[in-house]
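help with these tokens:
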Amino acid sequence: MPHTFRLFWLRETGCDAGTLLRADELVPEIQETVLSLARAKEHECEETVLRLPFLDKIEWRRRGEILGGLSWQREGDEIHAELSSHAAVRDLAAQLALGDPAWSSVPAESNPDHFRVWQSVSLALQRALRTWIAEAYFADIGHFDDRAAAYAMLVYESARLYHGRAPIDFTYDLRDYPHCLLTVALAMKMSGRTLQTNLARSQRRLEEAGSPTLARRYAPRWYEDILRGVRSRPRSFIELLAAERRFVNAVIDLGTSRSASGVNHFAKASTQALRNVWGMDLRALALRALHLTTNVLEQQRDGMVEVNPHECLRTP
């Protein structure tokens, strides 16, 4: 019996959600590669899942060229393309914004519940990004040697969440910088207790690493001095808040537009926000953030408000 494929392929022009195809019905440019991968299975079965990446209307005209230029891999009984970070984020954004029930059920901008839903998303993303970015930075314990930078990162991790202002204000507005530091002051307000907790964790880590002298510079008792120092030279702190703002607003724009153009805009905006955060390429965080957003939207839809972003740390 000829080999068959279950095709899953979202496009701007349509969607295959498990369409059964023969090999000779596949896009010609990938037939040979896909069939070879399907037959290479140790225990060959007659049906294989094939997932193709999202294409918009313009890309659809060049679908053969685009698909033929990709590398392909098989995992179990599924074949899919090996995508770059940017393409993987774009593909997931399309799957969610254009096809996930949690995203499609979000109230329109004219609905009074619109602000409440995206406010919950913004709060969850702010909390998660601060945890993820700080973890990525301090994965290299040597970064504690540069105390000015480390203090700015710890203050960012500890900063007060922005609860927004209806109808469409969801992140800190940084347009007043550097002429006015009101936003900086608001972000640091009432963050002392959280900063002390994060400092104590850093101090323990440095002590365990055999750096007692440096560890003392991260003692919680110095939290007021650290806040004053970052407030007096806030540029690094502002850079982190700005990246956070760009990314969170991009997610909300994606969920509001739920269109192919919105998917492309999100992929570009998320790349710009996370590609170079203090020298770190954090574009992979966009995938985790999209999964977290979906969790929040699902819980909002079910009437639940609180979401623990740390649960999403284990999301593949």
Confidence is low (pLDDT under 50) at residues 309-316. The chain has 14 helices and five strands. Residues 113-138 form the longest helix (26 residues).
